[in-house]
UniProtKB/TrEMBL annotation:
InterPro entries: AfsA-like, AfsA_hotdog_dom. One of its GO terms (molecular function) is transferase activity. This is A-factor biosynthesis hotdog domain-containing protein. Pfam families: AfsA (PF03756). Residues 28-160, 195-314 form the A-factor biosynthesis hotdog domain. It comes from Actinoplanes cyaneus.
Length: 319
């Protein structure tokens, strides 16, 4: 993935026409609420090469700063998703009303220093490169390099397939018949402080009373995770669940004064994760397998009806 070749600072980006003045129209990133739109603009840099601007708030009802005072890292993931959708509609000829089915996503923060929350919102730049993996089947991938204040501080990618509404409905009819599986006992949400949340309403996981695993507990009225109605578990809901489990694991050992934060995440999906099926979150990495005193790698499999429907890998780093 090439480094950003010319425009690294927000001022330099503005000089070439990139705007940070307001969010893009919400329908172009598949959001209902303006407060959930972070992409502000995109300018063409070359064939399938773009510079995307985003503004990250100092604080947000859901994406709040880390314990170390940094911008919520999951904002980077949501901005990658929004950039993909915006570029598709604005620059790649994908019509509004199309559906995007995610195949995989990965991101990593390589330098968290520029992401410290300061006295004004963060102007983030994504150097983005679009690739049609299969034009006939409308399969795509977007690779990005993140820079803030002239410093490269992260990279990531997302891949998806684009479907028309009719294609999507046919696909969902084919996958709506997952076996119900055996009855599962009720699960209580984990206390917010145990999983790094400030509010109980933002907790999306609970420990399975039948074993050592976790269960996904999504509230479809949540204004950020379910900004608009969807018929399957959204990517950001799953990422938040893994983030909460990671926080629990990172803070389960001997107490210390270090601030742990999520610095890398990737996920691959084999099928849709259904909202009406019990969802198990199985931690595969041994509890004490940190690899380093400053890094905790975590693998979490997502299971429905005893079948793995997604696999995630994440890294927690100590400040």
């Amino acid at each position: 993935m090439p480094e950003p070749i010319r425009l690294l600072t927000a001022d330099g980006a503005r000089s070439s026409g990139l705007s940070f003045d307001q969010p893009v129209p919400r329908q172009l990133v598949h959001r209902a609420a303006i407060a959930e739109v972070f992409v502000t603009d995109a300018v063409v840099q070359g064939d399938d090469h773009y510079l995307v601007g985003a503004q990250w708030p100092r604080d947000h009802a859901f994406y709040h700063p880390t314990a170390g005072g940094g911008t919520d890292p999951v904002l980077f993931a949501e901005t990658i998703r929004q950039a993909m959708v915006y570029l598709a509609h604005r620059h790649q000829g994908v019509p509004l009303g199309s559906r995007f089915t995610g195949r995989d996503i990965a991101w990593e923060l390589t330098d968290t220093g520029p992401l410290l929350v300061r006295d004004e919102p963060t102007a983030a730049l994504l150097d983005a490169r679009w690739t049609w993996l299969d034009r006939r089947r409308r399969r795509l991938r977007v690779d990005v390099v993140l820079s803030v204040d002239g410093h490269v501080c992260g990279r990531g990618h997302i891949s998806a397939a684009v479907l028309g509404e009719r294609q999507y409905r046919i696909l969902r009819r084919r996958t709506d018949f997952a076996p119900a599986g055996p009855p599962v006992p009720p699960v209580r949400r984990e206390p917010a402080a145990h999983v790094g949340r400030l509010r109980a309403k933002d907790v999306v996981v609970g420990r399975d009373p039948a074993g050592d695993g976790w269960r996904l507990l999504l509230d479809q009225s949540h204004p950020s995770l379910f900004d608009h109605p969807v018929d399957h578990v959204p990517l950001m809901g799953l990422m938040e669940a893994v983030r909460q489990i990671g926080h629990f694991v990172a803070h389960a050992g001997p107490a210390d004064d270090r601030a742990w934060s999520l610095t890398a995440f990737d996920a691959t999906f084999t099928t849709f994760i259904e909202l009406d099926q019990p969802t198990a979150l199985v931690v595969r990495s041994p509890h004490g397998n940190t690899g380093s005193p400053h890094r905790i790698p975590l693998t979490v499999d997502v299971e429905q009806a005893r079948a793995t429907v997604a696999t995630t890998r994440s890294v927690w780093s100590a400040a």
